[in-house]
Structure formats: structure tokens, C-alpha cells
Design brief:
- The chain is an all-alpha fold.
- Helix 1 packs across helix 2.
- The longest helix has 21 residues.
- It is elongated.
- The model has no long low-confidence stretch (mean pLDDT about 75).
């Protein structure tokens, strides 16, 4: 929950426009990630998290 709250703070401080801009940025990252799954930084993050190199699993609460 701490990471989730930390992620929300900038959007909440900026009001409704901040929330929308953050949501747009997240969608751009997801789109890019699904189109370029072999990019070194994404592979490294997946391996560090104990996932397969191309696995895209959502965080669970």
C-alpha cells in the first residue's frame, strides 16, 4: 500500500488535471511496454521481480 499511496500523491496534489495526466502517462507506458517487450530495462525489471523476461503480471493487493 505504501507504493500505491506514493504513486497517488503527486496526482492528488495536482488536482483533477494531475490525476488525468498521470493516467495518460501510465497508459503510454503500458502501450510502449506491450509493443517493445524485449527492451533491456523491462526485461531486467521482470527478472528482478522474479518473473519471466516477457511476463506482464498485474500487482495484487
Amino acid at each position: 500500500m505504501t507504493a500505491h499511496r506514493a504513486r497517488q500523491e503527486p496526482a492528488v496534489r495536482s488536482g483533477r488535471a494531475g490525476e488525468e495526466l498521470f493516467a495518460d502517462a501510465l497508459q503510454v507506458a503500458v502501450y510502449w511496454r506491450t509493443r517493445m517487450p524485449d527492451t533491456v530495462c523491462w526485461v531486467r525489471r521482470a527478472l528482478t521481480a522474479g518473473l519471466d523476461a516477457r511476463e506482464m503480471r498485474a500487482a495484487r493487493r
